[in-house]
Amino acid sequence: MGKTLQKIKVSTVKEMPKNLGKTVTIGSQEIALFHLANGEFRAIENRCPHKGGVLVEGIVSGDHVFCPMHDWKISVKNGKVQKPDNGCVKTFNVEIENGDVYIVL
Amino acid sequence: MAKQKLALIGNGMAGVRCIEEILKIQPEMFEVTVFGSEPHPNYDRIQLSNVLQGATTIDDITINDWNWYKENNITLFSGETVMNIDMAKQIIYSDTNREVEYDQLILATGSIPFILPIKGADKKGVTAFRNIEDCEKMIEYSKSNKKAAVIGGGLLGLEAARGLLNLGMQVEVIHLSEYLMDRQLDPTAGKMLQRELESQGMNFHLGKQTQEVLGEIDVKGLRFSDGDEISADLVVMAVGIKPNVQMAQKCGIPVNRGIIVDDYMQTRIPNIFAVGECAEHREMVYGLVAPLYEQGKVLAKRICGMEGKAYEGSVLSTKLKISGVDVFSAGEIFEDEQAKSIKEFNEWNGTYKKVMIRNGRISGAVLFGDTTESNNLLSMINKNAEVSEYLEVGASEGPSVSLVTTMSNEDIICGCNGVTKGDIMTAIESNGLTSIEEVKGCTSASRSCGGCKPLVGDILEMTLGADFSESNQKESICTCTTLSRDEVVAEIREKNLTHTREVMNVLGWNTSDGCSKCKPALNYYLGMIHPVEYEDEKESRYVNERLHANIQKDGTFSVVPRMYGGVTNPDQLRKIANVADKYNVKLLKVTGGQRIDLFGVEKEDLPSVWADLDMPSGYAYGKTLRTVKTCVGENFCRFGTQDSIGLGIALEKKFERVGTPHKVKMAVSACPRNCAESGIKDLGVVGVDGAWEIYIGGNGGTHLRAAELLCKVKTSDEVIEITGAYIQHYRETANYLERTSVWVERVGVDSIKAITSDKQKRIELNQRLNEALSVLQEPWKEIIESNAIQTGLFQKVKIPAISNK
């Protein structure tokens, strides 16, 4: 009963400004997709473990996003909440192909 | 002299800590052999709940890595369990038939989790929460299963439940008692904890006894004694632990609940000792790390043949390690005939404090919501302090004074590792330490649960004294740099820097991309310095300013259209009503600034909401002029002496949209009755017969402050000219995020008077402000007309559920 991975096209590189996020809903899963300054794309669960803030609207700096609710700092690479706060959010794999952005579920 | 043979059974925190203590005293005296059933070196079991919660990783919780054993010439047999001890010959036998002789033997076999003896407890998907394997199993299960049930609403159960929530599972917690953590908390604190955890998403089944685990091979659910059932794919049993004493008992070592030891951790058998969770001392078995480390110290001295203090038992204290939940409990917690309590319950803040007093002395405490006093209370409980000492500390303490200043050098700061305030101060002074991490590396304080980090920070601040205050005087704009606001602004002007990234690079930021503090600040300073050339960086703006709406806690937005001077008309009201209907607006509210706020608008609907409103942005989200509040004024009011509405509208039209260090609120009242509340605004105007008074630096919010009179002028035009100079001076000299109330207090109202009363300066300031005003666009209109901005910033992607079987 193994799960098969699915690649879902969610955006294009061109329409996503750097250092900003896009809200992607797949089924009931809400995902924050980020275009980082170094060109990489990263995707994490769009809910801060603190009070459920929408991370997609946070300020992005390097590999981190700052939750717009209470400024928790969260790594968009591994989903970890940075000290002094604790917690983590799910991460999702992102693939780029021919200028299209895919999330792998 | 030949080395003595020392063997340790149990490669966990208590036993290995004891070995560490022994090596500190007598590094060369023993040949040490360690047996451990788990296939890992010694790790910090307490941190497993943080691993599960995702705050740390299994790699990071190792206390003694493989090298440590090598470097200390310790023979380690990991993944090997001792089966028997020949106490006459002094030989131990492992499950691989290994024989090891000993001169002295330490039993530190720890505990085993208690598994309820109920039907189905052996099904696949039932686990305890005790070791790395359990932790890995839960993480694995969470990847393909949704529903978890945790049996046990104690410390461990709740930490496991929080971890499973973080792993994306739905979590049901089943607890036998009527309230949570009933061994550490009273019902009041237990209920507060329940409410907090419910708000985090946990579901509770209290007063429920689990009777059966349902399912065929895999777990499917639970049935309770009252017949109720719930479904579950994973069941975590966290109902308690019991000392792991089976092997000792079999060998004939006297055992009650745990292995019976005296005040020096010696069992009733010569040359055999026991330490940690498996040991029973004065009829107490301890399951928390601090007492175990204390026992380890006593035993180490004993084994090295030194005279040492006897172990006399410990006061139990607990902190719950769930982020956002502060719970502390120590000593006795229930009142009786002799034990009375002092309670403080603040329902508004969600804090609760109960201090127990027996025979006039502090005997226990429960804290919820705010645990800053926990170390202080624990130390009072440990030394059995008189109640007067507690009351004195409470009375003398201002809110900003840290507890550490009132503690004595012997007081324990780090309960887990037994580090005193004096130890930390000595380490800071003799090693020149400056950070919590350095103190941790040097003294072990905050190495285990980390709860004492704030206190360690306070001690650093207290000990470094002058050095600390010196570095505080120059306040850097954030931790990415050591430069102050004035230095950064001067460098931008001097070096003609034009982008935030350029500022960070040229001025040597210690991060490559800044943080949520410096990015918006630099964006503001650059825009203030180069008003025409600078292109505002949307990604350096806080979400509200980037999307031109106010984010709400559920991720929706609120929309406030501009109504100059708080004056509206039937046409505007009809449009607002139509939009509210069309977009299913959840709440319509009149704001404190005399505007109408539409709540609950989805991000992707914002551009069309604005298009339908066809009104300018009210900038309710901006670091700019928010509103000019006005009273009715001379046209209707029988007391009005001036046209307050007219002046208010003129001010708002003139100064709207220009960026300021923080929000700016204004008001115009037509008489000293001051119905528009001009006395608590960043700039307030009050009409008197034939003149206007201008007040500055008022605040009605967090920094309640009455505005001070700046000057009195005759005409509306003069009000606008003075206001322009004042705003521009504020823009040029205040720190980003510094309200005028703070700024006016810092620079002094007289210095501002000197500027605004100087005609030449006034003209120049207004010229610079007009330049900045000249390039501003109405933001909602700009977005409505730009497909690129709508796609990049406002559109969400929605993909229907995918089948994934």
The rounded distance between the terminal residues' Cα atoms of chain A is 16 Å
What would the average pLDDT of chain B be, to the nearest integer? Answer: 90
Q: What proportion strand of chain A?
A: 35-45%
Largest interface, Cβ cutoff 8 Å: A-B, 52 and 46 residues
Can you offer a commentary on this structure?
The complex is a heterodimer of chains A (105) and B (805). Helix content of chain A is 0%, strand content 44%. Chain A has 105 residues and is an all-beta fold. The two termini of chain A are 16 Å apart. The mean pLDDT of chain A is 91. Chain B is of the alpha/beta class and 805 residues long. Chain B is 34% helix and 21% strand. Chain B has 27 helices and 37 strands. In chain B, helix 22 crosses helix 25. At the A-B interface, strand 1, strand 2 and strand 5 of A face helix 18, helix 27 and strand 37 of B. Strand 2 of chain A pairs parallel with strand 37 of chain B, so a sheet runs across the interface.
Q: What structural keywords apply?
A:
heterodimer, A: 105 residues, mainly beta, 6-stranded antiparallel sheet, 3-stranded antiparallel sheet, globular, B: 805 residues, alpha/beta, 5-stranded parallel sheet, 27 helices, 21% strand, elongated
Quick structural gist:
The complex is a heterodimer of chains A (105) and B (805). Chain A has 105 residues and is mainly beta. Helices cover 0% and strands 44% of the residues of chain A.
Layout of strands and helices, then pairs:
The complex is a heterodimer of chains A (105) and B (805).
Chain A: E1 7-12, E2 20-26, E3 29-35, E4 41-45, E5 59-61, E6 64-66, E7 73-75, E8 91-97, E9 100-104
Antiparallel strand pairs in A: 1-9, 2-3, 3-4, 4-8, 5-6, 6-7, 8-9
Chain B: E1 4-9, H1 13-25, E2 30-36, H2 48-52, H3 66-71, E3 75-78, E4 82-86, E5 91-94, E6 99-101, E7 104-107, E8 111-113, E9 126-128, H4 132-144, E10 147-151, H5 155-166, E11 170-175, H6 187-199, E12 203-206, E13 210-214, E14 221-224, E15 229-231, E16 234-237, E17 241-243, H7 246-251, E18 259-261, E19 272-274, E20 279-281, H8 289-303, E21 317-319, E22 327-331, E23 339-346, E24 351-358, E25 361-368, H9 374-382, H10 387-396, E26 412-414, E27 419-420, H11 421-431, H12 436-443, H13 453-464, H14 466-473, H15 485-495, H16 500-506, H17 518-529, H18 543-547, E28 550-551, E29 557-559, H19 570-582, E30 587-590, E31 596-601, H20 606-613, E32 625-630, H21 644-655, E33 664-669, E34 683-688, E35 691-696, E36 708-713, H22 716-733, H23 740-747, H24 749-756, H25 759-774, H26 779-784, H27 787-794, E37 797-799
Parallel strand pairs in B: 1-2, 1-7, 2-3, 7-19, 9-16, 10-11, 10-16, 11-12, 18-20, 32-33, 33-34
Antiparallel strand pairs in B: 4-5, 5-6, 8-17, 13-14, 14-15, 21-22, 22-25, 23-24, 24-25, 26-27, 28-29, 29-31, 30-31, 34-35, 35-36
Helix pairs in contact in B: 1-8, 11-13, 21-22, 22-25
